[in-house]
Amino acid sequence: MIRFGPSLSVGIALVGAVAAAQAQSVLNIYSARHYQTDEALYENFTKQTGIKINRLDGKEEELVERIKNEGASSPADVLITVDAARLEIAEKAGLFQPHGSKVIEERVPATLRTPTWVAFSTRARVMVYNKAAVDGNFVQTYEDLANPRLKGQICVRSGSHPYNLSLGAAVIAHDGEAKAEEWAKGVVANFARAPKGGDTDQLKAVAAGECGVAISNSYYLARLMRSTKPDEQEVVKKLTVVWPNQKTWGTHVNVSGAGVVKTAPNKAAAVKFLEYLASDEAQAYFADGNNEWPVVKTAKVKNPALEALGNFKPDQLPIGQLAATTVQAQKVFDRAGWR
């Protein structure tokens, strides 16, 4: 048997400690969140911690499949994506592990996290109408969108898009599946045209008179509000925003979020990154950079568009419950013909 002297034993221990430290000085992020303004987030994290970030950008479905195919050898430490529906897909695929962070539990409201993934910004699903074409009294709730008096007036993106699936899940949670399907059929009957394009396209269609009402995530509207382009300023002038369901269950809110990958080779760095995203400093980036609301109450927001939009009553449905109902929402939309 070979026995090491004290000095050699210490040397081996030091080598091991250095190797462990080096491993934790790198963080591999797979991100489906493609906003240029987020670059400052990553740079600041590295400045604060010394942890280098390697980032792979891609579409949600591609990144989920890649992690699944890579298996135990996946280099991914953190998966970032937008919308609870997409986070739920990764959760059901078994890609996340519990973060176990008390910092996150203390700073992020329980309704905006699960044991395995965490929301770090929110966005509302608002309604916008052209007051020259529609009486604002007719569009105060999501349920109003199914009223026949809005026939030929609604523009919206695909029913298979996660933004709408999450809204559908909220309607199911509050009104029940039967009423949600009746609602979806009414919305389809009121389409001005077949669903196409993104939320910005819907906003521009309302301004152009192609339809009278649209559903959009709030940050798309805020982005137009902050634009210096004359044509986009003209679009905003023709739009009126509605916070739906203020007298009932509140306006539907969704999230951007992240989770620690189950096979993360750098878990400690991954958890540190999620904790950083919940810091006041990082939270301010989401508000100022991409017109989203922070999830942490102490974060200060200096965004003129968000200030102009004002306060509203958000839906308090736990985001994890919402995510779990999106498959059901897809079936409801399919039966209703919302393609």
Task: Describe this structure as you would to a colleague.
It contains 15 helices and 10 strands. It is of the alpha/beta class. Strands 1, 2, 3, 4, 5, 6, 7, 8, 9 and 10 form a 10-stranded mixed beta sheet that branches. The longest helix has 18 residues, at 6-23. The model is unreliable at 1-23 (pLDDT under 50).
Tag the structure with descriptive keywords.
339 residues; alpha/beta; 15 helices; 10 strands; 45% helix; 16% strand; globular; disordered N terminus
Q: Which structural category do the helix and sheet elements fall into?
A: alpha/beta
Low-confidence spans: 1-23
The profile of the biggest β sheet is: 10 strands, mixed
Radius of gyration over C-alpha positions, nearest whole angstrom:
23 Å
Query: N- to C-terminal separation?
Result: 71 Å
Helix content: 40-55%
Summarize the helix and strand pattern as letters: HEHEHEHEHEEHHHEHHEEHHEHHH
The count of helical stretches stands at 15
